[in-house]
Amino acid sequence: VLNLNSICLVYLGRFLNLLFFVAMTFLSIKRLPFGKEVMMGAALLPMTIHLSASFSYDVMIMGCMFYLTAICLDLSYEKDRVRLVDVAVLALLMAAAGPCKMVYGVIAGFCLLIPVRKFGGWGKWSLSAASVLGAFAAAMAVVNHRTVSLYTQADQGYVAWAGETGYTFGQLLHSPMLVLKMCYNTLAWQGEQLYSGMIGGALGNMDAVLNTPYAVILGLTAILVMLALRKPGESIFIQWKGRLWIWFLCLVCLGALMFSMLLAWTPVSSNVINGVQGRYLLPLLPIFLLSLKNDKVVRTDWDDRGLLFAMAAMDIYVVLRLFSLVCLRV
What we know:
This protein is mostly helical and 330 residues long. The chain has helices at 6-31, 36-43, 46-52, 58-77, 84-97, 122-143, 145-152, 169-173, 176-199, 214-228, 240-264, 285-290, 304-329; strands spanning 157-159, 164-166.
């Protein structure tokens, strides 16, 4: 339609993905009843920025899950009642992001933070829950039905990238101790890699040199924790029951991510689960950080604007460093 060549179309697509992510992040920050600075901090991580202007499906997942998190927290702790449009938006978000990576369907559990009374009774709550889960299931059936059937009904697993035999769904289902062992090995041997990868430790997929220095990763982590801490006079919205539920869902989602990679990407000869990346944890990061806010630790120094400005300055340094490394090669 625009008579553009292939290169222009590539960059136009990436630019539109960036606009989508910025718009969804803006809506998320605007909708959040508290912790807006935490959402902004998660959006300013080098890995988040790196993905936001790419063709990766992470753009769709992060944008939709950030907004879904904001809506759930707003309805749980701010709004007096749940409107029909809120349910429709939640269903649309799950239908849009679900087929990108099925395991993020676990995030729909954050909707259970919303009290039943705000729906107007158990009847409307049940109808709303069925609408959200039904939209997710329908999208999965339309988009990923063949893929799910391929993995669940396969008699023998095969990992193409390794050229070796892989696991089958039935084999893993009947070997829970094997699954737990592989998950433990992965966290024990690659836990630090997952953490640094979530912040921005591996910005070059095929080039380890294109990364964020570890000192910057530690600095960004410290700022995120500081943003999540309670400030003097600030109310605590998420109580211990809500925190336990959030941590449980984060753990289940992490387990589902590792199980999916064990099934689809790991040969039987491997001692760890291959293919699990830190970027997969970014959709869970804002609500996990918000659940850390408590009465025991209070931040009495450093305002939010100063901390976010420091994150932006670190991002600029990372960009200039990467640019200089690439220019040296040219």
